[in-house]
User: Which sequence fits this backbone?
């Protein structure tokens, strides 16, 4: 993937009137918390929908590390999501652990699963790698069925809502589980956001992007291709598995045939593309896309048109907004200022946000 | 990287603290069975107890979350025709639940549990529905707890899985499809009487339903002393048929659904096996796409049924059938479709629960109390078979009629009497 | 013995269909360096079309020809409108375009033809008595027909690529587009023809498999064929025509024999087995058994 199609979420240019450095960070945090508070006041079904948005956004955030910053298309993230979900469900049901305490275990297993899926990335590249990851996605439901003693097989697992009550210290009651999940998912998403940001702006992050854009040159400069790729997959796996754990807690039901197939991977990828590959806000926008597009098409057509709408939107975004909505938004101030400088002169090149 | 090293432990600390304790296991009582066998649900645990006991106004709101799209929605849309037709028939010709109209909405979940949860949350919280419906085990699993906590009855869920029959665990949920355990017991009864000393080849799909049929059949066969000579999974129908032939089975039980309803009988015939009896599951009751298409391969196939079959000679003079056929045609459906018949009977049962509940005042509480103890004969059920619910087992369908496919006439003929499990 | 012959025959039938799908994928890969994720869905669309024509009274052979023509148009139009503009943008946008097409096509099939299963009559007699006996096993004409059709088709494809002027241009355009263009070959048109031809192969594969598929003709018929076909193409090497055929056949046979005879794998791990073979091959030979090494451009 050429560097030109990638944009980073953080515009380095200073916008006049916006305070810089620490103060800007504080302002952004205040804004985010205000938005979250506003969201939590929405009707219950909206809060539930937003919770799903946050969970998918977190899953896509993990995918973004590999597919966006790493330039390696993974179709295997449905399996990682499943590893997280099943870990949480099994630990709650069989080991009787509290939901929260299962999250670290799910993340650790997700790291291992990510590393396993990423291992071939040290040797296999590009389209071949995409197909290797596809293999993991297709195999995962078959594994669940094979080891049905643990996973409930094709019938899946149920986690009862009384096992998912908010912990007493949270101040939420059993009836307020929806709000508790909303805040938990929001906190996890913010944590994931911070983690990805600090990772991609670190030296290691630069090395990874160099590897994506100019591998031979990067290796010549002392970057270890194999190690960095596997590490990236591992961290990505941890984040997506975290989302899987939340998914199990949110839904209370896991089903291999409907929740963790390769079509889930396609859904995550579509979300990432619409949101914006290799941008920090892209996954969040992608989460909204994944949850709201089906909701809207169901309201409008109530049927089979969903896949068609999804496909058309995906193709349109790839065509018209190569760096997704987030990339297009980032390009907006620049495009506007170009217009101002050139007066009325029309510049079609700028319109596609590229 | 420095920031990262600080962040991770900071995030883990509360999580590790939280892990100090496990889950407190103390159940709560969901409802009680009275001396006269009736059921009283406990509304004290409801999130909004007042809503459960409030009389329903002029419109009864129904919300159904079902698959309307996706590769596996094939049969579901045919069931939906029956559901919709029955509702339309009520609104146009009956309106006899205190003169109320039914406002019925179906929302697509594409067999995705997450979308089902979203649909049901919207139904409960935004649309304030009085009655819910859902199809598919995974989908019901994702919504059952929310729906029970909110105390909105979910009636005639299109699911066979046994866990949802437990009135103490899911007091506000009833399911329609017959228990696989019961169906398998009746099948073994039939095998014992029709083909004593049978050597049974058990063919099963590697799906949720297939594994469930397999377990239930093995248990029933063991009880009845029937020998199973091979258990053949449908990796491909051909492979399964080969295994059945190698094992020398003379009775074949096909515990698979969907396209394998036809694929397995065809493969059996093609492997050169002529079993004494080929038994299909009730979910394979689609005369049109399975038995008419199967020709010689499905001639004589046997299955259990509780509903009337299209093509029977006496339907012409059957008033209930004529009403049904007109209503289904009006929604663009095919009356001769077994899945549509099923949808109609499901909604028939739901509407009857509402009628019964209306006698004591139509509230959500009374609706579920009525549904848990309902005895009713849907007119499209076969004569002699009732829908009977009682809170202990919540079976609903407890009797079935064995049918045999008659390829020459293109219809099912009864094979012996209605079977039931001796209590 | 009977069981072995049956398993070999099943494996061979599936193997030939996988080989055709793999070959289609390889032809596309040689043109555009991508795996056509939508190949199977294009085939499903034309198979539905053929089935629909037969329900309207058309002969299956006429339907086959129509499906091939429509298939060629879909393939060619896809290349010109969706893939060519992505050429400079790299692997991922191209792949995403195909994912979009994959989702949209399946949905369109459902919108036009509904969600039901259909049992489709094949090109060859499919009656219950249309078989010959070999060692007690029944080899049905439907299966033998698939073998013969696939062999003929493979022979035609190889002859076209190796013996005709068009084939020569195709090979030149695939091996070195720049020098092919310099020597006057219209590389773009060659690619368009390649995509069209691949879709024709897919259409034929679809019409061969649908009558004998366990899924019958439904929206889920072709996805497994894509999985096995791409695994076969990868095992053989994505730019090797012969490799695709060998990959497809060996995968079909291995699948049938391994799941039949090796208890440890278990019947649930059907696709996993095929894909595990693919991953193992890739780990040892990152471009497949017969694929040539990808060049690294700095």
Assistant:
């Amino acid at each position: 993937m050429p560097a030109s199609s990638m944009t980073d979420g953080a515009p380095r240019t200073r916008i006049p009137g916006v305070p810089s450095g620490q103060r800007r960070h504080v302002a952004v945090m205040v804004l985010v918390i205000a938005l979250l508070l506003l969201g939590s006041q929405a009707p219950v079904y909206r809060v539930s929908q937003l919770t799903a948005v946050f969970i998918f956004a977190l899953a896509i955030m993990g995918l973004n590390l590999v597919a966006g910053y790493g330039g390696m298309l993974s179709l295997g993230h449905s399996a990682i999501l499943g590893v997280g979900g099943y870990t949480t469900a099994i630990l709650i049901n069989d080991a009787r652990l509290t939901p929260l305490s299962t999250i670290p275990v799910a993340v650790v297993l997700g790291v291992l699963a990510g590393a396993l899926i990423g291992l071939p990335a040290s040797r296999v590249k590009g389209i071949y790698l995409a197909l290797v990851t596809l293999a993991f996605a297709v195999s995962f439901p078959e594994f669940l069925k094979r080891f049905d003693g643990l996973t409930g097989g094709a019938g899946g697992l149920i986690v009862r809502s009384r096992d998912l009550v908010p912990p007493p210290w949270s101040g939420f009651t059993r009836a307020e589980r929806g709000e508790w999940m909303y805040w938990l998912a929001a906190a996890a998403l913010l944590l994931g956001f911070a983690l990805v940001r600090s990772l991609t702006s670190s030296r290691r992050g630069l090395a990874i992007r160099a590897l994506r854009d100019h591998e031979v040159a990067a290796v010549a400069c002392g970057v270890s291709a194999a190690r960095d790729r596997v590490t990236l997959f591992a961290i990505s796996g941890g984040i997506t598995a975290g989302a899987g754990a939340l998914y199990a807690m949110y839904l209370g039901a896991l089903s291999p045939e409907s929740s963790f197939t390769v079509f889930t991977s396609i859904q995550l990828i579509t979300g990432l593309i619409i949101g914006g590959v290799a941008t920090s806000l892209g996954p969040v926008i992608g989460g909204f896309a994944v949850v709201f597009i089906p909701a809207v098409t169901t309201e409008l057509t109530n049927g089979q048109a969903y896949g068609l709408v999804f496909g058309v939107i995906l193709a349109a975004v790839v065509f018209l907004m190569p760096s997704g909505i987030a990339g297009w938004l980032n390009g907006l101030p620049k495009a506007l200022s170009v217009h101002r400088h050139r007066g009325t002169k029309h510049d079609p090149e700028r319109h596609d946000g590229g | 990287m420095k920031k990262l090293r600080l962040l991770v432990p900071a995030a883990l600390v509360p999580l590790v603290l939280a892990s100090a304790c496990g889950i407190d296991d103390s159940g709560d009582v969901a409802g009680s069975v009275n001396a006269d066998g009736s059921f009283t649900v406990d509304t004290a645990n409801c999130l909004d107890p007042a809503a459960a006991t409030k009389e329903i106004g002029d419109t009864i709101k129904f919300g159904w979350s079902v698959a309307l799209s996706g590769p596996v929605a094939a049969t579901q849309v045919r069931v939906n025709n029956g559901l919709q037709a029955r509702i339309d028939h009520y609104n146009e010709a009956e309106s006899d639940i205190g003169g109320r109209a039914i406002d019925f909405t179906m929302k697509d979940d594409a067999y995705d549990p997450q979308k089902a949860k979203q649909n049901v949350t919207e139904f409960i919280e935004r649309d304030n529905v009085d009655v819910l419906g859902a199809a598919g085990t995974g989908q019901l699993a994702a919504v059952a707890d929310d729906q029970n906590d909110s105390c909105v009855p979910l009636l005639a869920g299109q699911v066979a899985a046994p866990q949802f029959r437990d009135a103490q665990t899911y007091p506000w949920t009833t399911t329609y499809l017959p228990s696989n355990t019961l169906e398998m017991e009746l099948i073994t009864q039939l095998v014992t009487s029709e083909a004593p000393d049978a050597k049974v080849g058990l063919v099963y799909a590697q799906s949720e339903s297939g594994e469930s049929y397999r377990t239930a059949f093995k248990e029933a066969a063991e009880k009845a002393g029937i020998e199973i000579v091979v258990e053949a999974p449908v990796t491909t129908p051909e492979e399964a048929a080969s295994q059945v032939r190698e094992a020398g089975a003379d009775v074949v039980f096909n515990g698979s659904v969907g396209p394998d309803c036809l694929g397995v009988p065809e493969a059996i015939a093609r492997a050169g096996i002529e079993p004494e009896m080929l038994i299909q599951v009730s979910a394979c009751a689609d005369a049109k796409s399975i038995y008419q298409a199967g020709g010689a391969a499905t001639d004589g196939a046997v299955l259990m049924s509780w509903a009337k079959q299209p093509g029977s000679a006496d339907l012409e003079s059957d008033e209930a059938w004529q009403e049904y056929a007109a209503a289904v045609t009006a929604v663009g459906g095919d009356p001769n479709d077994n899945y549509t018949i099923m949808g109609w009977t499901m909604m028939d049962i739901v509407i009857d629960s509402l009628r019964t509940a209306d006698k004591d005042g139509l509230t959500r509480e009374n609706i579920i109390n009525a549904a848990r103890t309902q005895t009713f004969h849907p007119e499209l059920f076969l004569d002699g078979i009732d829908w009977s619910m009682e809170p202990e087992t919540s079976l609903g369908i407890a009797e079935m009629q064995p049918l045999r496919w008659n390829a020459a006439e293109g219809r099912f003929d009864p094979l012996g009497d209605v079977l039931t499990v001796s209590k | 013995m009977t069981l072995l012959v049956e398993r070999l025959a099943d494996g061979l039938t599936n193997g030939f269909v996988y080989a055709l799908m793999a070959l289609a994928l390889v032809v596309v890969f040689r043109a555009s360096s991508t795996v056509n994720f939508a190949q199977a869905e294009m085939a499903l669309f034309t198979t539905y079309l053929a089935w629909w024509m037969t329900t309207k009274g058309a002969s299956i052979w006429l339907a086959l020809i129509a499906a091939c023509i429509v298939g060629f148009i879909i393939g060619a139009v896809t290349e010109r409108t969706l893939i060519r503009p992505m050429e400079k943008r790299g692997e991922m946008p191209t792949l995403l375009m195909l994912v979009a097409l994959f989702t949209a096509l399946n949905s369109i099939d459902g919108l036009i033809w509904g969600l039901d299963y259909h049992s489709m009559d094949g090109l060859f007699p499919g009656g219950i008595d249309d078989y010959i006996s070999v060692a007690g096993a029944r080899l049905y004409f439907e299966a033998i027909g698939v073998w013969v059709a696939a062999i003929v088709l493979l022979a035609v494809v190889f002859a076209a690529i190796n013996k005709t002027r068009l084939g020569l241009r195709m090979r030149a355009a695939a091996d070195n587009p720049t020098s092919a263009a310099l020597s006057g070959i219209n590389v773009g048109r060659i690619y368009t023809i390649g995509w069209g031809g691949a879709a024709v192969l897919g259409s034929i594969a679809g019409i061969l498999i649908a009558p004998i598929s366990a899924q019958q003709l439904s929206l889920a018929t072709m996805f497994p064929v894509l999985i096995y076909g791409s695994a076969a193409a990868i095992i053989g090497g994505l730019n090797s025509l012969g490799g695709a055929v060998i990959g497809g056949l060996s995968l079909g046979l291995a699948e049938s024999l391994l799941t039949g005879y090796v208890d440890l794998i278990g019947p649930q791990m059907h696709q996993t087995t095929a894909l595990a073979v693919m991953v193992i091959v890739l780990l040892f030979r990152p471009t497949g058994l017969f694929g040539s090494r990808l060049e690294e451009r700095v």
The first helix of chain A runs from residue 21 to 40. Residues 274 and 315 of chain A are 10 Å apart (CA to CA).
